[in-house]
Write a structure and sequence with these properties.
Largest sheet: 2 strands, antiparallel
Radius of gyration: 19 Å
Number of domains: 1
Number of strands: 2
Order of helices and strands: HHEEHHHHHHHH
Strand content: under 5%
Number of helices: 10
Shape: globular
Strand order of the largest sheet: 1-2
Distance between the termini: 29 Å
Length: about 260
């Protein structure tokens, strides 16, 4: 079988797994699969309303609503991708009896599904806010895309690592939710790297998530802010996490075959 045929076959498998995941998670009635879009939208909408009520219209001369939106949506993206990667093998282990389905397919299907869902949610909430004049149009839309897809890459690498480890160590499932909540205050959701003391900023930017939110905000606000990010470093972190995650997935696959 050629490489192109293999890719085509696994693409079909991943698409089928995504449809199956939507049906089993949200059902076929009422909103159904639309919940994959509305769930992150409701979370972000609630945070925007609360933060706007607490801080007012502006924060350090920046409009609060677009500022928080650009920080909270990347956090939701990482959280959803990672959380729905947990126990992917345990939940769908029966599907592995089909020789054409691999363990990696199970993870990739969930990662792509969450990325698409949160991306559509981001687009929808931005469109509504823009229509009501509550957020400006991005100064550099390409940089927003770059930051968003980099966030997805970082989240996917982390998801492969955490998801595979959760198949080997049960306690991971219990602590990862709390750990991801800790990312909210330290990953740039409610602050810019520029606002940190230089010595603190140096260490804070070691988190790839902060680099991602800085890129997205730079695309939105342009010269209104002084962003700090290193795309090369962030992509390297994502690549390393992905490679490590794939190695752990391979080990988890061997264990699943033994069981």
């Amino acid at each position: 079988m050629t490489a192109i045929a293999t890719i085509r076959d696994h693409s079909r498998i991943i698409w089928a797994l995504m449809l199956r995941e939507l049906a089993t998670r949200y059902g076929r009635d009422n909103l159904g699969f639309l919940w994959v879009i509305f769930e992150p939208l409701v979370f972000c909408g609630g945070v925007l309303i609360m933060y706007r009520a607490i801080r007012g219209q502006y924060m350090n001369a920046l409009e609060v609503i677009p500022f928080v939106m650009c920080g909270y949506m990347p956090t939701i993206l990482v959280r959803h991708i990672v959380m729905y990667s947990l126990n992917a093998i345990k939940i769908n282990g029966g599907l592995l009896y089909h020789k054409s389905i691999s363990v990696l397919d199970l993870f990739v299907a969930r990662i792509i599904l969450e990325f698409i869902g949160v991306t559509l949610s981001f687009m929808l909430i931005f469109s509504v806010l823009f229509a009501f004049g509550l957020t400006p149009f991005p100064v550099n839309l390409g940089l927003v895309y770059e930051g968003w897809f980099t966030t997805g890459f970082v989240g996917s690498g982390l998801a492969l690592m955490v998801g595979a480890i959760s198949e080997l160590v049960d306690v991971v499932e219990r602590i990862i939710s709390v750990t991801l909540y800790v990312l909210v205050p330290i990953s740039g959701t409610f602050f810019l790297a520029e606002w940190l003391p230089p010595n603190v900023r140096h260490y804070a930017l070691l988190l790839p998530f902060l680099n991602c939110s800085e890129m997205i905000r730079a695309g939105f606000f342009g010269n209104s802010i002084n962003p700090h990010y290193d795309l090369g470093y962030t992509l390297t972190c994502a690549l390393v996490m992905t490679v490590v995650g794939l190695l752990i997935v391979r080990h988890a696959r061997a264990r699943a075959e033994l069981i």
